Amino acid sequence: MTDFEADAIVVGAGLAGLVATHELVKAGRRVLVLDQENRANLGGQAFWSLGGLLFVNSPEQRRLGIKDSYELALRDWLDSAGFDREDEDLWARKWAEAYVRFATYEKRDYLHELGLRVTPLVGWAERGGGKAGGHGNSVPRFHLTWGTGPEVVRVFAEPVLAAEQRGQVRFAFRHQVDELVETDGVVTGVRGTVLEPSDLPRGKKSSRVAAGEFELSASAVLVSSGGIGHNHELVRQNWPVDRLGPAPQTMIPGVPAHVDGRMIGISEAAGARVVNRDRMWHYVEGIHNWDPIWPDHAIRIIPGPSSMWFDANGQRLPAPNFPGFDTLQTLKAVLSTGYDYSWFVLTQSILEKEFMLSGSEQNPDITGKDLKQTLLSRAAKGAPGPVDAFKRHGVDFVVADDLATLVDGMNKIARGPALDVSTLERQIVARDLEVGNRYSKDLQLMAVANARKFVGDRVARVAKPHRILDPAHGPLIAVRLNILTRKTLGGVQTDLDSRVLRADGAPLPGLYAAGEVAGFGGGGVHGYNALEGTFLGGCIFSGRAAGRAMARAVE
Fold it and tell me: A GO molecular-function term, please (predicted)?
């Protein structure tokens, strides 16, 4: 690397790093991008994502009759975030206000100019806890990228790779940063280990065998290395027991093995302030991948609102712990039972209409931008192919024609108490008796009726209410749901230029942070809760801010 004089070093070739590099390239700067994985992993976690993006008052929303605004979105964000730490949330709140402005007035156009397109239907993710002034999205805002995560990566990777061909960007893969180099209080470079070459496919766990050492310097260094999602030791160490209950014994990772959180500690050792470590985002609808890519590979079910949700003891979860409503409150309710899993009970009709799986590889029709295949897959009778494959092969799925047989199968895979068929039957029958009218005292059925007033849900996402025990809608299906680790909501504190801050609040000269390592901006832009569609967007927004600020700093 001695033959390449870089203006800036980017540590991490994920989405935030690519966005920052793209901005640096546009400003005419020379960039060295380091990553501990091989070139096959360019784009990092974003490649595996569903590609969901939160936009506010978008053309897609307006065409569907959704009335959204900056004011409504900001209220939802702040109510969900629950910022309550005067010092640690100082910059997080500023990032939140700036991000919602970006999502309202700039984000869609910024991505559209790069060639990114979204599907016409807008999803209603994280519907909230049942209060207008509480957590959740008041309106549908989840825009699905046409091409999912790989397309989000592509629109930034292509101009960066073109710059590589021109000699303006240099990649150093299999370079693991172990230390930030400081000179007279200024971060001037990085030092680390060259790992042995790897030709493994994207996502596979690679070796950490050393093959050499390196030390590199530049006028500005960006850390964009992701969070701690696959490092369960760190997850447990930072787990908010007082807020969510004890950490689960069984956790399955929704991110590849290289999402290890190393650079958070390395940045802190160099003087960076790390805040809000106890804030994290883990899903309760995790299932083991029957065809895994990384160790203990987990997939999240993105559910519609109709499945009945039972805890490990067989008791229906209390309102508003419905599928797709309030992730962390449902996580707390599940863990309060003393067990770390729960159950969906549903019908084939609900599965076909309401089950979607997270991950680009689980949605090949949309990922491949194949309109014909997408229309056929989503409109055809039966569940989409990937969903049906999990139903047939997944270790967490039980299928039966009657409730007694279903409960027997559930008990065979339970990690806790044996379920009693009469207890489940009583609760299911009580719910089923409410279906006879278009109104109900059952809050979940009321939520389903509300969802079906939105054309996007009625057409493509929410099944027509029916009795769970009606054989015409069978077979019956149960899914054992596990805790799936995913996102780090706290991290390195930064100002609005993505400059890393020290404990005294002053910038640490020469060092920047973007993406999940920075809590997606400011050390925790989401606060305690995410609205969904905001993780990729946070990488884009903070990466853009970092790239532009670094370009100015090295003029």
Answer: steroid dehydrogenase activity, acting on the CH-CH group of donors
- As a three-state string, the secondary structure of 101-138 is HHHHHCHHHHHHHCCCCEEEEEECCCCCCCCCCCCCCC
Q: What confidence tens digit (pLDDT) does each residue in 126-136 have?
A: 999 889 999 99
Summarised one tens digit per residue, pLDDT across range 176-226 is 999 999 999 999 999 999 999 999 999 999 999 999 999 999 999 999 999
131 phi/psi in degrees, rounded to 5: -125, 140
Q: 103 vs 71, 87, 541, CA distance in Å?
A: 12, 25, 9
C-alpha dihedral (520, 525, 531, 537), degrees to nearest 10: -40
> Strands, E, within 110-262: which ranges?
118-123, 142-145, 169-173, 175-183, 186-195, 210-217, 220-223, 251-253
Answer left, alpha or beta for residue 515, where phi above 0 means left and psi between -120 and 50 means alpha: left
- Dig out the tokens for 428 from the structure: 């299911």
Q: Is 107 left (phi over 0), alpha (psi -120 to 50) or beta?
A: alpha
* pTM of the predicted model as reported, rounded to 2 decimal places: 0.97
- In one-letter notation, the amino acid at residue 249 is Q
Q: SS3 for 380?
A: coil
Q: Is residue 266 a contact partner of residue 286, using CB atoms and an 8 Å limit? A: no
How many CA atoms within 13 Å lie on the side-chain side of 549? 23
Q: Provide the terminal-to-terminal Cα distance of the chain, rounded to the nearest Å.
A: 22
- Give the ranges where 414-471 is alpha helix by DSSP (H): 421-433, 443-451, 455-460
